[in-house]
Structures are given as C-alpha cells and as structure tokens.
Amino acid sequence: MDDASASAPVSTSAVAPVPDELDGSPVVREVLGDAYDKLSVFHVKLSKEGEPRGLIGPRDVSIIWERHILNSAAIVPFVRRSTEGKQFKTIADVGSGGGFPGIVVAACLPDHHVTLIEPMERRVEWLQECVDEMQLDNVDIIRARSDEVIAQVRDRRSGMHPFAVVTCRAVAPMTKLSGWTLPLLGRRGQLIALKGRSAQAEIDKAKRQITQFGGSHARVVEAPVGPGLEPTHVVIVNKQ
After folding, report:
1. 134-145 in b/e burial notation, b at 16+ Cβ within 10 A?
2. Cβ distance 106 to 81 under 8 Å?
3. Count of CB atoms within 10 A of residue 112's CB?
4. Sorting pLDDT into bands at 50, 70 and 90, what band is 239?
5. Could you tell me which of 84, 101, 104, 82 has the C-alpha nearest to residue 93?
6. What count of other Cβ atoms lies within 10 Å of the Cβ of residue 31?
7. Where are the alpha helices (DSSP H) in 115-162?
8. Is 63 exposed, middle or buried (0-12, 13-18, 19+ CB in 10 A)?
9. What is d(CA 157, CA 136) in angstroms, rounded to the nearest whole number?
C-alpha cells in the first residue's frame, strides 16, 4: 500500500480542501488531457477526505496533483505501449489503497479494463465511492489479497483470466512483489510498477524471485511526471 497512508491518522470526518500547489497550472491539463475532468473529481475528494480517512499523509494535502495523480499517470504511456495490438487490454492494480495508480490509470485509459485488488474493507469502500463519483465504467474492485486472486487465475473454472498488465505503487520490495504480481500476468504481459530511487537495488536483490515467477528483462526507466516536475522511476518486468 502507499507509504504515505501508513502513517496518516484515521478518521471519518471530512475537512475543507487545502489549496494545491498545482491548482490552475496548465501542466495538469497538459498531462491528463481528456482525463482531467474525471481526475478533478478525484482530486477534490482526496483534498477533502484523503487525510482524515488515512489515505494520504498530512504533508501531501497541498501536493496531491504532483505526488499522487500526475505521479500515477506517469505509467500510462508504458501501459498503453504494453497493450498495443492486444485484444484484451486488461490491467490488475495490486494493493490499490487510495487509488494510486489504478484509479488514475482507469481514468486515463477508458478503453482498458482495470481490476483494483485491495484487501482492506475501508479502502475498498473508498475505491467504490471514487469509481461511482468519477463515473468510471471500466473498473472492477476485488476485496482480496493478491495470492487469492492468483489462485482464481490459476483455476480455469473461476472465469478469471491472466492480465495483460499488472500495476502497483509502494506495495512491497521486489523480493515480495515478484510473487504477488508476476503470476497474475499472461504470456508476454508486463509488470509496470512505480518505485523510488532504490528501484535498481531492489531488482538486484530480487533476481532469483523474478526468475522463479517467470519474469525476465527487469529494468528501471525514468518516467516524466510533467514539464518542470521531477521525474519518477518505473520498474518494468516482462512475463515469459
């Protein structure tokens, strides 16, 4: 789950929105394009409810656009490239938490189907509220751990098929994440994970686990977040 949410206080009361440093900036519209209107609804909800509901940290309230929404959107070009030419453009977002990156990806890629996988009931409730308020019709939400969904994917009677792409952000180090994500992928699928500066070190430590779960060509790429903003790091792993 997202690092910021781990330390944030939990409350059910909403607070007045705090101005965001990028409110009114043309950068936001430039990056988000047609998804801007839906993600503005998400931004307002996060501004009012994100901190009291324990989904973002108090220091993030004034930087939601950059830290959470644009950061999540940075993987969209990689997802689009990965699914190009595929009949089924399916994405599993593991440990969706506050909706990063899954809700953002779903808004940016309406022609893709996104399955949000989240085990915590209160976060599932939040995700469902976001999907309803943003009027996203390309999203399913599953309250489960990743290993439970993997079991469904392996059981042909379940009707759950392998995914073209798996996304996640700040869920776990690659030593654990490999086993939680790679088994969800179909052949020639890709894990596309938002990571921090230690991404390459994580890959180096997880070489055995990546290979064990059918991954190959693990690499770190720098992903633009927006003009004038610090780029982020994305780990991409191919599924054999």
Report:
1. bebebbebbbee
2. no
3. 21
4. very high
5. 101
6. 24
7. 121-134, 146-154
8. middle
9. 28
